[in-house]
Structure formats: C-alpha cells, structure tokens
Amino acid sequence: MRSAKDFFRPLAVGAPTPLTEIPARPSRAIHFFDPSNPKMAAKVPDLVGKVDVLLGNLEDAIKADNKEAARDGLVDIAQKTDFGPTQLWTRINSLDSPWVLDDLTTLVPAIGDKLDVIMVPKVQGAEDIQYVDRLLAQLEAKAGLDRPILVHAILETARGVANVEEICAASPRMQGLSLGPADLAADRRMKTTRVGGGHPGYLVRQDPPKNDVGVPDVEAKRTTYQQDLWHYTIARMVDACAMNGIYPYYGPFGDIADTVACEDQFRNAFLLGCVGTWSLHPKQIAIANRVFSPSVEDVAHARRVAAAMGDGTGAVMLDGKMEDDASLKQCLVMVELAEQLAAIDPELKKAYDAIEVDA
Ligand code: GLV
Ligand code: MG
Fold first, then answer.
1. What is the pLDDT of residue 313?
2. 115-116-120 Cα angle (round to 5)
3. Which atom of ligand 1 is nearest to the CA of 195?
4. What is the extent of the structural domain holding 108?
C-alpha cells in the first residue's frame, strides 16, 4: 500500500507532478480514427474544433500488419496538426500484446506533449494501471515533459468489472473509464454477436390477460419491453468513477446505420451519469454532441431552481413540485456542465445565453 503522501509524488525522478484533480474537459464524443489509413488520416485536421476528442486507434480494428504504420501515422499526424481546443487521445494495444511497449516508448518521446490521454484496453485490475503509471513516469522524465499524460481504462473483461473500484483508484493519472461491450460480452460468454447496443431477446413481458373463465391466456398477444444489457455495468462504472473524481463514458455502438437506437443508448448513458461516448463514424459525433449536452429546457429549469432556492437551503414549490437542497444539487450539475460546454461550443453558448430566468 502506498501512503497518502506518496500518492501524489512522481513515480520517476524528473517526471511531472501528478494532478490532484482531473480537469472536467468536455469530451462528449471520442472520435476514433485509424492513423494507418491515409484517407482517414487526411480528414483529421478538418475535425479539429468539431469534435471534443480525436483518438488515434492502435488496438483492435487495426490489422496486425498495420500496427507499425498506425503508430507511425499517429506520430506524423500529431506532429503536423494544431489541435486547438480538441483533445488528442490514443488507444494503445493491450498490455499482453507484442506491440504495446513500442507504442508507449515511441509515442511518449515523439508526441507526449500533444497527447492528453492514453486509453488502455482490457484492464483487469489495479496492477495493469500501476504498470502503465510507472512506465509513463519514466518515459515522461526522459522526454522532459512538464505535464502528466492521463490514463483511461476500458472496462471489457469480467475481472475488470469485478475490480472496477480499485482500477479507478489505482493512480492519480486515472481520467476515466469506457465500457467495452464487445470484448466484455465475449469475456463474459454472453450469447450476443453485436458491438454494443441492445438485443431484442433481452426483454420482459406483460402479464398474460385472463380469458373468459379467468384463466391466464399465455398465448395471447402481449407487450414486451426490451431491456438494457449494459445497465448493470454502466451503473457500476458511474459509481466507481464518481467516488474517485474521474469520468465514465459509454463505448462503441457498432450499428452505424441505426442512428435512432444509437441515440437511445447514448442517452441512457448520459442520464445515468456518463459524460460522453465513442464515435466510430462522423455521423455519431453529431448524435453524441446533442445527447451529452444538457437541453436548453433542462438548463432553463436548472437555473430557475437555483434562482428560487436562494442560499440553497430549505424548500420551495415550483409548478406544484417540491425543490430542495438535493434537487438543487442535481440542477447545479446541469448548470456547471452547460457552462463548461458553452466555453467550447459557440452554438450552445448562444442557446444557453438566450435563456431567460424568471423565478
Ligand atoms: C471495445 O473495445 C469493445 O470491446 O467493445
Ligand atoms: Mg475491445
């Protein structure tokens, strides 16, 4: 066990001091691109300022033969591009792969000053984060970096889910967690074949109506309600992240054509406490930006409650509903998020600024 005092000391001589708080930078969409694909790479500069996070993917979806090209491509893109307000992240290969060491030892010296967050896949427990933590400190010290690169873990193994709290608490570098529904489904031996999203077979059914003689007619037509396969895991992630002051994200939604179900899945995650999601196609960026930004109506209501609550104590009635300290706190989450987003999104700023509050 490390003592509380040691926790915020650099893990290598000359490495930057760990942050005591992870900044709340808007990251509604983490847009994945393949740096080995010249067509995709050429589009990266056009996405700067239009998406909160650009992520150069080195792991799954990159063919083994292209791993080096992807790594070199990312270095090249990062060195040539001014990312302005957009964050640059990467997803390195898994810690048991033959590529990950070269990923880290290449990226940190070459573009460590541009990389905000390194996403680590298939994290199983605190030991995986501690390995990356020390290695990053050594590489940062060698490269003379002056701010620590943050770490984001993908939750995509049963052991990772069982250890989610210790993963979040393993290092001051921990920025957040994403759900990895495809790998997680395989690791759990779930009987699905999709990349995220729902499944029509996972449902509950209305009780059977009774026939003329009062006997339940199980063959009668009944309404079914599809359930969310990911509710349990997302809820665990949200709690583990909140207790550690870091940020939870939904992950991939593989059915690119089904923009409606994608929006539903993203919204469930937003309502449960996630701050963003992955985008696998440019059309998912717009969905994520819409879903993970509080609506004008919600911000208007939140500001109205804040104004009516004055010093924040006691209770008031607004439109027949009781508001108190606890509902005010929920409203303040919304107001704070709106302020952070308005600072980087001029359209949203205009919409939020136009709200008139009458208590
Ligand atoms: C993402 O990496 C997933 O496995 O879903
Ligand atoms: Mg995965």
1. 94
2. 90
3. 5
4. 4-199+227-292
Mean pLDDT of 303-316: 95
Both 162 and 185 in one domain: the answer is yes
pLDDT at residue 77 is higher than 80: yes
Instruction: Give a yes or no: residue 209 inside a domain.
Output: no
In 58-149, DSSP assigns E strands to 87-91, 117-120
Report how far ligand 1's centroid is from the alpha carbon of 253 (Å): 9
pTM over the 0.85 mark: yes
- Whether 182 lines ligand 1, by a CB cut-off of 6 Å, is yes
The verdict on the CB of residue 154 being under 6 Å from ligand 1 is yes
Cβ–ligand 1 distance for 47 under 6 Å, the answer no
Q: How many domains does the chain have?
A: 2
Residue type, 74: L
**What proportion of the chain, given as a percentage, has pLDDT over 70?**
99
If asked whether residues 258 and 335 sit together in one domain, one would say no
Task: Tell me, in angstroms, the distance from the centre of ligand 2 to residue 237's CA.
Answer: 16
Q: Is residue 46 part of a domain?
A: yes
Which pLDDT does position 358 carry in this prediction? 64
